[in-house]
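Entry for the shared binder. Reason: the reviewer on the internal report wants the predicted structure included alongside the sequence.
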Amino acid sequence: MPHPIETSVIDLSTNGHAVSLAQIRRPVEAEMKHFRRYFRDAMKTDISLLDRVVRYVLRQKGKRIRPLMVLLSAKMCGTVTETTYRGAALVELLHSATLIHDDVVDDAERRRGVFSINALWKNKVAVLLGDFLLSRGLLLALDFHDYQLLHTVSDAVRRMSEGELLQIEKARHLDIDEETYFRIISDKTASLIAACTTCGALSTTADENRVGQMRLIGEKLGLAFQIRDDLFDYGVRDVGKPLGIDLQEKKLTLPLIYALRESSRAEQQPVMNIVRKKRKSRADIRSISRFVDQKGGLAYAHRRMHEIAQEARDLLITFPPTTSRAAMLDLVAYTVRRKK
């Protein structure tokens, strides 16, 4: 029988209503508006082809959660400064570059429902655009001697690369355990979110203890975010990430890792036979999803996600009560209950 999902450890609503990103943005609405102009200026170029591609990127209305976290973290620790905007732009530039490069590596034609850069302008332009964005971010930090911000974000990019490569290695050998899974998602996802909260704190305070706490909050938030993302693989509808894509790529994530751990060798064998297939049918994906659910993998992943989110919440409430802290608490709730 599936294990009961424990969701009571964290308050997932505000005054009885679901948390929305619009609510979360309110304490930094003016700052987010200023950031959008700042980010647009940071991407300016006089090369016509590059300018057309950059304008296409800027037209995509992403959630901008990462600069939002930088701004909220800064306000929790002090007052938003020009250094804060540079930190937010640096994070977003490097994040955008890694997404563009990922689309080239994956030969992806679409991202979140719109054509990717490589689909419209081919791989060479996409790779060069990613390089351009990386260089803009590096120069932005160096021009203003923001060495701490640069070190923070550069270390996150290193960890992201290592996490992706470790995941590729484990997908080849199919020998991943829970400890390795958490190492992968800590490097691959949580490192950049931790960089956001760290950059926000660094831009407004010299208190090393507060900076360390904000880094840890970002790390916990990133882990919870990735577990939620991995659970979408076992969902019932496409949420921007194609259903079963992790299984198609032989990525063993927390729900399946737990289910296999709780199974006998005889039960594991047919599941692993499906996982090893180069192409998996919808029936194969449904079969593994049923197995994971029956063995309590979904319930376990939900439980771990909520426990980690609660740890982030516990750290947040050590900060003085402000509208920015309340928004960050709402962001934790949003992370674990988001639908896409």
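Summary line for the report: The chain has one domain: 23-337.
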